[in-house]
Design brief:
This protein folds into 5 domains: 331 residues, TIM Barrel (Alpha-Beta Barrel), CATH 3.20.20.80; 174 residues, Sandwich (Jelly Rolls); 91 residues, Immunoglobulin-like, CATH 2.60.40.10; 82 residues, Immunoglobulin-like, CATH 2.60.40; 138 residues, Galactose-binding domain-like (Jelly Rolls), CATH 2.60.120. It is built from 8 helices and 53 strands. The longest helix has 17 residues. With 883 residues, the protein is mostly beta strands. The strands form 12 sheets. An 8-stranded parallel beta barrel has the order 3-4-6-7-8-11-12-13, surrounded by 4 helices. Strands 45, 46, 48, 49, 50, 51 and 53 form a 7-stranded antiparallel sheet that branches. A 6-stranded antiparallel sheet has the order 2-1-35-34-31-32, with no helix packed on it. GO terms for molecular function: mannosyl-glycoprotein endo-beta-N-acetylglucosaminidase activity.
Length: 883
């Protein structure tokens, strides 16, 4: 039994029995109807991590920078902000390259696009996405997706959703509202595309939607998708018509708050007229455009929504703007595509009227701002990084992403004014003051190309002690920079303040008092760059801009209290998986909480941060042979002032004895062929000792030695793994076969016969898994539990290795690679022997050498088809090598 100690001023000792196996990382929720009906926060261990604690901010239009933009019509984005429905970490992950969408200023509503027949059809937004949306003042909806039958949709799911009690209530509607309230998001997008409905089904769905309207909390929204019509058929209208109007408005009854109209339209004037006819605001209708495949090359009849010389007919619905992320391989490429998508090819939201067919959303929609209250602080943190910095000091070298930590990013990207070639502006993920990124301004600078960079639209009050500061870093002698602000009433007229402090290659802060402008409101924040001398390679990194009160840094928040372990688990005595919660500070001025690890040398390593009051720590590596580890939890105010730390200590189990394990490059070889052995012993191993009977060399202490065998025969191999605590020995009898026949080894499963437990579609049968192809979706696919694939080789072979090519090998997401499976062999197809067992595969191609085995039949059985909850097995190729 190991102890866990929590301390601030007092010490409380709590004992817990640790789990010996590794705990699963908390994941964002997804359900089928039956699963949601049985869900409760109390029964879902992950629920506490899936809550957003960021309230929906208010935001304003204030003024335009582009004469073509308007704010009457709205924009909704239906975006897959995570690559999968299942397996989505609740609080970010350990990859830098993530979909850190940031053009919130143009979106009036976000739909978290997710759901599939193989994973779950009811999907709330992940907590980090809710946090980011709310920080920017954008409501976000979860998705209820009844798929077409061709994609696995089932009528029973629709029937379960529409079950009605005797009193007229809908239990599933109550559950949807409960989830939205508990997790803190803003409603649901209802997408009913499963065929087989009737007039009665349509009436029931209308009643279901009306029930949601009557019982939803204030501020919640229900959006309906244009698919089902009044007779229950799936028949996309692409407009508001008499066939689908009942799902928006039924006489005096408001049924849905808005409707997303399908993509196949030329003009939405008829929808405008129909909305007026039924007494609804035309801007409750959103004309869909599908940009998933072609992004900025999508052909859109813009005049069908935005007729020249008059107000827009209806609002705009953008389906899958995550195209920018999905088609990119680097963060710079992703951000470049996003900029073009949202602000046009020129990358200037104030000038979008050029001849380019794709003018960007900034051409049609005025950017809105939620920057209205003091303090306002930005570190230009995009929500991911290659490391994590705190006040200019790198506190973690690990890749990370967590959109809960994304700052409100510049309103205009990028609005640069210059009489010459303006400086280049972008995010810099190699330099950060706080978080994982900063703002970088670079290029050749002189008086001929002095550059005014307009960054933020704001509505910030100036009080008598209000200050504005900028924290920057440059390698030139002086900053050559001024800080600019304009005021409400004259947003285009700027006042500039010289930034004078020199701090070459050091983060430096310049603060300006704004008392002179008391009672005004800041309308915009900008930076101005100029130099009398020519600087060929000017570079300036901006790590922070802050508008706050003079003595805000002296207002230290209270520390969090009452930390409690939710779960503790260990893997091999070297890694800890920990979940901890604490009582939040009762103060609306708290931005988030930071967690640090205290090392024996006194260094503090950043572990993570969250606005929530619970956090999961995954794969915390033991530091040497330490017996205990101490973590700190601190509250961080909106001014980024930190509280005292709450210390959290846990004890490690005894340091483990190693576990020996190994594999070989091949288990069958010809005399004289080289064979390499690979040490897979547990991480606690400090040294190894190999014994090879009949080989040269006969022994080795190398980790991955190469040996040869000169004589035909069958040989055993022994590996001894050692450390200071003891040793473990593993002998594999008959592991190596040396035979002249090894030169005849080939893929004996190629183009043989195969059968399977099932298949997803007519073109995804078992023969695809043995045809030697991975292109053109040549795979075996089957949905459901306990799927299997059997290959008849036609005769008995001596098998030495299996190779499986999983989903990623065929171009699909790594999340769909088979995780757990077995490969068995048989001589008669009736009696089976296990050859391979895998429980945690992540690879696109997995190789499995085995001792020589005689078999005619091979059976692949799948226990977990993907890395998450998707239940579709995808095998592009099953290869069996032998002679």
């Amino acid at each position: 039994m190991y102890g866990f100690v929590f301390s601030v001023m007092l010490t409380v000792v709590i004992f817990a029995v640790p789990m010996s196996t590794f705990a699963e990382q908390p994941e964002s929720s997804y359900w089928y109807p039956e699963g949601l009906m049985n869900w409760s926060p109390e029964s879902d261990a992950d629920a506490i991590f899936n809550k957003s604690s960021v309230p929906l901010a208010e935001r304003e239009v204030l003024y335009d920078v582009n004469d073509t933009a308007q704010s009457e019509a709205k924009l909704v984005a239906l975006s897959a902000l995570n690559p999968n429905t299942s397996g989505v970490p609740s609080q970010g992950g350990n990859k830098f390259f993530a979909n850190t969408f940031s053009y919130w200023q143009y979106a009036d509503l976000m739909v978290y696009w997710a759901g599939s027949a193989g994973e779950g059809i009811i999907v709330p937004p992940s907590a980090d996405v809710i946090d980011a949306a709310h920080k920017n003042g954008v409501p976000i909806l979860g998705n209820v997706f009844f798929p077409p039958k061709v994609y696995g949709g089932k009528e029973e799911w629709l029937e379960q959703m529409l079950v009605q009690r005797d009193d007229g209530s809908f239990p599933m509607a109550d559950k949807l509202l409960e989830v939205a309230s508990y997790y803190g998001f803003d409603g649901w997008f209802i997408n009913q595309e499963t065929g087989g409905g009737t007039v009665e089904t349509a009436e029931k769905m209308k009643d279901f939607l009306a029930y949601l309207q009557e019982h939803k909390q204030e501020g919640m929204q229900i959006m309906w998708y244009d698919a089902m019509t009044k007779n229950g058929d799936i028949n996309w209208q692409n407009a508001l018509t008499d066939q689908n109007k009942m799902f928006l408005q039924d006489g005096e009854q408001r049924v849905s708050d808005s409707m997303f109209l399908n993509f196949w339209w030329n003009s939405q004037e008829a929808s405008y007229n129909k909305a007026k006819e039924i007494g609804r605001n035309p801007y409750d209708l959103y004309a869909g455009i599908d940009v998933e495949a072609n992004g900025t090359d999508t052909n859109v009849n813009w005049e069908g929504i935005f007729p020249e010389g008059r107000a827009p007919y209806i609002s705009l619905g953008v389906y899958r703007p995550d195209w920018a992320f999905k088609t990119s391989t680097t963060m710079n490429e992703f951000y470049h595509k996003e900029q073009e998508f949202w602000t046009g090819a020129a990358g200037d939201p104030s000038e979008t009227s050029k001849k380019d067919s794709w003018k960007g959303m900034a051409h049609y929609f005025t950017a809105k701002t939620s920057v209205q209250e003091l303090p306002f602080v930005t570190h230009f943190n995009t929500g991911s990084g290659k490391s994590f910095a705190v006040n200019g000091v790198t506190k973690s070298e690990q890749d990370w992403n967590n959109r809960s930590l994304q700052n409100i990013l510049p309103t205009w990207r990028w609005l640069t004014e210059s009489d010459g070639q303006p400086l280049h502006v972008n995010f810099d993920w190699n330099q950060a003051y706080y978080g994982g990124s900063s703002l970088k301004i670079s290029g050749k600078l002189s008086s001929e190309n002095a550059t005014h960079v307009k960054l933020y639209k704001t509505d910030l009050p100036i009080e008598k002690d209000t200050e504005i500061s900028v924290t920057y870093r440059t390698d030139v002698k002086k900053p050559n920079m001024r800080l600019g602000v304009s005021f409400i009433g004259e947003p285009g007229q700027y006042v500039f303040f010289d930034v004078k402090k020199k701090g070459r290659n050091q983060w430096t802060t310049e603060t300006v008092k704004l008392k002179k402008y008391q009672d005004k409101k800041i309308a915009a924040i900008s930076l101005y760059f100029d130099s009398e001398e020519v600087i060929e390679d000017y570079q300036m990194n901006i790590g922070e801009i802050k508008v706050t009160s003079k003595h805000s840094d002296k207002k230290v928040p209270d520390a969090p209290t009452n930390p409690t372990w939710l779960e503790t688990a260990y893997e091999g005595g070297l890694y800890a998986d920990l979940s901890v919660k604490w009582d939040p500070v009762d103060d609306t001025n708290i931005q988030h909480y930071e967690l640090y690890r205290k090392h024996a040398n006194g260094e503090r390593e950043f572990i993570g941060a969250t606005p929530n009051n619970a956090y999961h720590i995954e794969d915390l590596r033991r530091d040497g042979k330490e017996t205990s580890t101490t973590l700190e939890i601190v509250a961080v105010s909106k001014d980024y002032v930190k509280s005292e730390a709450v210390e959290v200590t846990f004890e490690w189990p005894p340091y483990p004895i190693p576990e020996a394990d190994f594999s070989a490059s091949q288990t069958v070889a010809a005399p004289g062929d080289e064979i390499q052995f690979f040490n897979h012993s547990s991480e606690a191993t400090e040294k190894v000792e190999w014994h090879f009977s009949g080989a040269t060399p006969a022994t080795s202490t190398e980790s991955n030695p190469i040996v040869t065998y000169q004589e035909e025969g069958v040989y055993a191999v022994t590996l001894v793994a050692k450390n200071s605590e003891g040793e473990d020995s593993l002998t594999k009898e008959g592991f190596i076969t040396i035979s002249e026949d090894a030169t005849n080894i080939e893929n004996v499963a190629l183009d043989k016969t195969a059968s399977a437990s099932g298949q997803c579609g007519t073109s995804e049968g078992p023969l695809n898994a043995i045809d030697g192809e991975t292109a053109n979706n040549s795979k075996w696919c089957a949905i459901g539990e306990n799927q299997w694939l059997t290959v008849d080789l036609g005769e008995v072979y001596h098998l030495s290795e299996f190779v499986l090519k999983h989903a990623e090998a065929g171009g699909e997401s790594p999340a769909f690679n088979t995780k757990a499976f077995k490969i068995e062999t048989s001589l008669d197809g009736e009696n089976w022997e296990n050859a391979v067992t895998v429980t945690a595969n992540t690879a696109a191609v997995s190789e499995h050498p085995i001792p020589i085995t005689e078999a005619r039949y091979i059976r692949l059985s799948i226990q977990q088809p993907t890395q998450g909850g998707d239940q579709a097995a995808r095998i592009y190729e099953l290869e069996a090598y032998g002679y």
